[in-house]
């Protein structure tokens, strides 16, 4: 069977992006399989470059996808050996000209080049499904290198949400959520709390797919785009940012375009439904097929 090869560096977020694109391609081109391998060692990759050593005991793929700096050398080694198109996700550390296509989020300010596609956030595997009336989700992040954490402010926002808009609210956390925040959230009446370490694989995409609306702490950029990809109406809880960096600018743009509703400007009514379908994985897969890369 013909297949797409994913170079997987072991990071769940990176694999999520690669699989999002690969699965969208499979939807467009039936008969394709998906295979995953770990990055080659630096020594092995250099042998492939210098002497044409076979990289691994496998068949030639139709397309190679990788996300994360740890995959770049392997991507280029496999491209040289197999003469197969390579798609890199996010801004690469190697020169852009070496890759057939680079999918780069707009907040990274990608250059205008024929082999660069600007994306609205990172790609993911989330797809919309039939929405359940009154179903809502709350996604909580945590402190990061870009943002601090105001637990009291967050708790007030969540409490106000469930008071203003009583409904079927399901809340989950992330690996960055402080334990004290999780415990405090459990005490809020009107919301079911399921910590991230108790959710099985595929749980979040499944729940998001059927949710009508979703509130996310704005530090969790990947979860914001997952909620948008699920076709949810999306609102964001403010967090104290440390710097006015690229992530903040990206969130501000989405607010200005009306894609996100800021909690401070929320009227208390159910969030307005999304005006347009948000499926970056499908859009990028369409571009790849139109360009004949697969």
Tags for this entry?
19% strand; 6-stranded parallel beta sheet; alpha/beta; 34% helix; 294 residues
Structure in words:
- Helices cover 34% and strands 19% of the residues.
- It contains nine helices and twelve strands.
- The chain has a six-stranded parallel β-sheet, sandwiched between helices. It has a six-stranded parallel β-sheet with strand order 9-8-7-10-11-12, sandwiched between helices.
- Helix 1 links the parallel strand 1 (3-7) and strand 2.
- The longest helix is centred in the N-terminal third of the chain and has 17 residues, at 12-28.
- It is elongated.
Secondary structure blueprint with pairings:
Blueprint: E1 3-7, H1 12-28, E2 33-37, H2 42-51, E3 63-67, H3 72-82, E4 86-89, E5 101-105, E6 116-119, E7 135-139, H4 151-164, E8 168-172, H5 179-186, E9 191-194, H6 203-210, E10 213-217, H7 221-229, E11 233-237, H8 246-256, E12 260-262, H9 280-290
Parallel strand pairs: 1-2, 1-3, 3-4, 4-5, 5-6, 7-8, 7-10, 8-9, 10-11, 11-12
Helix pairs in contact: 1-9, 2-3
